[in-house]
Amino acid sequence: MDAAAGVNQGNGFAPESGAAKIPERLEKRHKARVEDAERRKEAKESQSVAEEKEEYFFSTFNTELASIEQLLSSCSGAEQAVVMQILEEATAKTVQLQKFVNDSMLFLTQYQLRKTQAALQKLQTSLLRPERRLSPRKIQVDGAAASEQCGFSNMSDEYLTKTSEEIQKRDVLLTHLTNCKVRLFGSPSTLHLKHIDGCEILCGPVSSSVFVDHCTNSTLVFPCQQLRTHNTTDTQVYLHVTSRAIIEDCHGVSFAPFSWSYPNLEDDFSVSGLDMNRNNWSQVDDFNWLAAGTPSPNWTTIPEADRKTHWDP
């Protein structure tokens, strides 16, 4: 009897133990299914969010791009002063569009990023076309007679100066200068610097834009409304600018506040229309640098201890 009971008890325990494990296995399977369903749901939601972000990005990007292109198209046939206002507005919008791309880089694919960067590059080229038309027809960048130029060209190792009466409200061109010191008093309308090597160039307040191209190992000092710098290396810029400075295809460029003083400087500021109290000298936008949250390696600020404050001839 005891033996049979033992057997019965033994037979009873085994099924009871197996039955106890069944709910545990079911619970694990259920939990796994729930977790898998949650993962699929999160993945679907994440994909949906990414698609919404992409849709918003390209809708906004294309709208802003078309707006800037339409703005630039209005330059055709406009007066110079109007063109300058349009360019300033279009440049500011382009900078904002670049920042929008920077902020969206995390969810854009490499193909999408290359596509938007190509569109931005094309837009920047379009910005340059009206700028080139701003140079007066009399002023030839290369080979013009000196009597036709307001400025200097093809000179080396010279001290060069223009008086306020010579340049007031005119377009000034400096090109192909090497190891020269230049002093421009007064208030030019625009200032164009091209192929400058080893020079020190100081200029009074420029009422609109300064355009710099192919400048090396030089020091530039001027106030202006807008600065556009291209293909420039190892150059210091002591700047007063009321909008934002822009560099492109540059490296080794450094900035400090404008620090030149001469008699009648305040009068020239008044003639130029520039705000003496508004200086964005350290607000530089690099059109070649799209890395979000990382400063461009192509420009720096000059440490205070290293800034020049005296500009004797």
Describe the structure in your own words.
The chain has 313 residues and is an alpha/beta fold. The protein has two domains: 1-134, Tubulin Binding Cofactor C, N-terminal domain (Methane Monooxygenase Hydroxylase, Chain G, domain 1, Up-down Bundle); 146-306, Pectate Lyase C-like. Helices cover 42% and strands 27% of the residues. Strands 1, 2, 3, 4, 5, 6, 7, 8, 9, 10, 11, 12 and 13 form a 13-stranded parallel sheet that branches. Helix 1 runs antiparallel to helix 2, helix 1 runs parallel beside helix 3 (110-133) and helix 2 packs antiparallel against helix 3 (110-133). Residues 3-7 and 135-148 have low confidence and may be disordered. Keywords: Acetylation, Chaperone, Cytoplasm, Phosphoprotein.
Specify the overall morphology: elongated
Main β-sheet, in a few words?
Answer: 13 strands, parallel
What value does the average pLDDT take? Answer: 82
Total of domains: 2
Query: What pattern of helices and strands is seen along the backbone?
Result: HHHEEHEEEEEEEEEHEE
Radius of gyration: 33 Å
Just give the CATH class of the largest domain: Mainly Beta
* CATH architecture classification of the largest domain: 3 Solenoid
Number of strands: 13
What structural class should be given to the helix and strand makeup? alpha/beta
Low-confidence stretches: 3-7, 135-148
Q: What quaternary form is this?
A: single chain
Compute the number of helices: 5
Question: How far is it from the N-terminal to the C-terminal residue, by CA?
Answer: 125 Å
What is the fold named in CATH at topology level of the largest domain? Answer: Pectate Lyase C-like
Q: Work out the strand percent.
A: 25-35%
